[in-house]
């Protein structure tokens, strides 16, 4: 992954599109009351297969893992990836930064390494809220008090369009798969029928008796008649 996107920290929640049209979703996780930060965000990106990838720094901040780079070295290569993000800070400065992503197995590995009180709450929030919402709707609709009804409806329609497109792609994939399986079954059935079909026998063949060579028999009879 090597997409670029603009993340604006001023907004409570937003869905951002990368240069290729890929969406980045911001989820707000409510921290415990005694936490220094009342809430934290987790940025999520879906790959071409619809699987979510989480910005590792966001996850580590929530879990209290102060050295993300060292922590990520303990993950398998297929549990992490790289991405380039253009982030806008609170003072409006735009900077491009390389960020690490972790997939769902990598996320659970990070949770297990945390001894913070919110680790269990975070895991439950991920498994009971974030992931089911992403997989069922293709996106996460977050309405804030500042949003008008029209803005909420526009966001809902956008998510619905994304969901319908993903359903159509999945349906087409399954139809293609079914056709390929059917063709293989027909080919296998024809091969089986050809193997089970008995070989044709001559009309002179008799079960348990070798075929008779009539020409050879005539020659024997002729020699017998001459010798007499």
Task: Give the helices and strands, then pairings.
Layout: E1 6-8, E2 15-17, E3 23-30, E4 39-46, E5 52-55, H1 56-63, H2 68-72, E6 80-88, E7 94-102, H3 104-112, H4 118-137, H5 149-196, H6 214-227
Parallel strand pairs: 1-6
Antiparallel strand pairs: 2-3, 3-4, 4-5, 5-7, 6-7
Please characterize this protein's 3D structure.
It is elongated, with a radius of gyration of 35 Å. With 228 residues, it is α+β, with helices and mostly antiparallel strands. It contains six helices and seven strands. A hairpin with an 8-residue loop joins strand 3 and strand 4. 16% of the residues are buried. The protein has two domains: 6-142, no CATH class; 144-194. The protein has a seven-stranded mixed beta sheet. Residues 157-184 form a coiled coil. Pfam families: Bro-N. This is Bro-N domain-containing protein.
Task: Give the averaged pLDDT, no decimals.
Answer: 71
- Domains counted in the coordinates: how many? 2
> What order do the helices and strands follow?
EEEEEHHEEHHHH
Radius of gyration: 35 Å
Shape: elongated
Domain Bro-N: 39-138
Protein name: Bro-N domain-containing protein
Organism: Oceanidesulfovibrio indonesiensis
Pfam families: Bro-N
Looking at this protein, list some descriptive labels:
2 domains; alpha+beta; elongated; Bro-N domain-containing protein; BRO_N_domain; single chain; 228 residues; coiled coil; seven-stranded mixed sheet
